[in-house]
Write a structure and sequence with these properties.
With 97 residues, this protein is an alpha+beta fold. It has a domain of 56 residues. Helix content is 26%, strand content 29%. It has a 4-stranded antiparallel β-sheet with strand order 2-1-4-3, covered by helices on one side.
């Protein structure tokens, strides 16, 4: 059996990206960065995160200040609950008084 060499080409591409590939790459980067770009008029929120996994008996609590838009994105994306093991992650966003 003769080794044929690497299956993945590790050198740089010789031809530049097409306009479609550039547009796609720009849209991907923008969509990933958009939730973390400060929104004008967006106030700060008090963010509380509580996490418990199946190996611990007490939940881990963390509190911090974050822009309201970032807090809402994290609250949506980190929501998790496993009824079989009792593990969960919750993030609450509140306006500071």
């Amino acid at each position: 059996m003769v080794a044929e060499g690497p299956l993945i080409h590790t050198g740089l591409a010789r031809e530049p990206l097409s306009w479609r590939e550039r547009l796609l790459a720009t849209m991907i980067v923008a969509s990933l960065a958009l939730p973390f770009i400060p929104v004008p008029g967006d106030g700060m929120a008090h963010m509380k995160a509580v996490r418990r996994d199946e190996t611990t008996t007490q939940p881990v609590k963390v509190a911090t200040q974050a822009p309201r838009s970032v807090c809402e994105v994290l609250a949506f994306s980190l929501a998790y609950e496993n009824p079989e093991t009792g593990a969960y992650t919750r993030v609450a966003c509140k306006q500071p008084q």
